[in-house]
Design a protein that fits this description.
InterPro entries: DUF6221 (IPR046193). Pfam families: DUF6221 (PF19730). The protein has 187 residues and is mainly alpha-helical. The protein folds into 2 domains: 131 residues; 46 residues, no CATH class. 61% of the residues lie in helices and 8% in strands. The strands form 2 sheets. The protein has a 3-stranded antiparallel β-sheet. The radius of gyration is 27 Å and the shape is elongated. The mean pLDDT is 87.
Length: 187
Amino acid sequence: MSRTDEIDTDALVAFIRARLDEDERLARQACEHANDGWRLGDHGEVVLCWPPEPHVAENERRLGVPVTADEWRGIDVPGHMAPHVARHDPAHVLRDVEAKRKLLDQYERLLRSKEAHAAAAEELSADLERQEQTGTWDGPGFPDVRLKALRREDDYLAAMLPVLGELVKAAATVHSDHEGYQESWRP
């Protein structure tokens, strides 16, 4: 279990990933029989989600029925809601899910780096102590170079982890109304 600032980061990341999975599933369901890129109709009260279907329009012409399939079709939505619905179409939601997953991946990578860095620092400390006792160095590379590299990495992690941690917590607040949300995650 990774812990940063006294929160269970594994639980936080798992919570967000579960919400993203739900968002993705719902977005894919919404465009199962429609286009994933919705837009507003000319008068702003129709959310257009079905693109033209030339083959269907041709059949409509052959049958002599009104031709509707050669234009975008959609659902009537009250004018004040339509822009919001069109803006948050499935394609938008799927891009948002992908972006947040990349943020979580980077955060988890940095958390693992921090753990690996701590282990490497312990190992180098033991090597340096052994060198002081024996007067010889039998480890890989030069200890001072390795120590400088570890310090640079430590500085990087110390700067990046808190920033990414706050972004991850902020991403979780989108779902603060979910029963699994923990108040300790609030930034």
